[in-house]
Specification:
Structural class: alpha+beta
Shape: globular
Number of helices: 3
Radius of gyration: 15 Å
Number of strands: 6
Oligomer: single chain
Strand content: 35-45%
Distance between the termini: 26 Å
CATH superfamily: RRM (RNA recognition motif) domain
Length: about 90
C-alpha cells in the first residue's frame, strides 16, 4: 500500500482542533489493514513532519435508518491519533 491508500483523510472536529492546539495531535482516518508503523511512515511522507507516536483504534459502524423501512450500518473505520514533534504542524486549508 502506498501513503495515499493508507491515509484517507484528516478529521476536522472540535475535539481534534483542541488536541492540535494543546498537544500537537492530529486525527486521521487510516486504512483498516494498516498498522502503526505504516501510518507513521505515510504521515511523515505526505505532510513532511516528524511523528513522535501513533495511537490507533477501530471504530464500529453505527445503525442508521432511512425513513421507516430501511435499516443499515455505516462502515467500520480505523482512527489514528498522531502526535507530532514540537514545532511541526499539519496545515489544513
Amino acid at each position: 500500500m502506498n501513503a495515499f491508500e493508507i491515509i484517507k483523510t484528516v478529521r476536522l472536529t472540535e475535539k481534534g482542533t483542541r488536541q492540535g492546539e494543546k498537544h500537537n495531535q492530529y486525527t486521521v482516518v487510516a486504512d483498516r489493514r494498516a498498522n502503526k508503523t505504516q501510518i507513521r511512515q505515510a504521515v511523515q511522507e505526505l505532510f513532511k513532519v516528524k511523528v513522535v507516536s501513533v495511537n490507533t483504534l477501530n471504530v464500529r459502524g453505527k445503525l442508521r435508518r432511512q425513513r421507516t423501512a430501511h435499516e443499515g450500518y455505516t462502515s467500520d473505520w480505523k482512527k489514528a491519533i498522531v502526535t507530532l514533534k514540537e514545532g511541526d504542524k499539519i496545515v489544513l486549508t
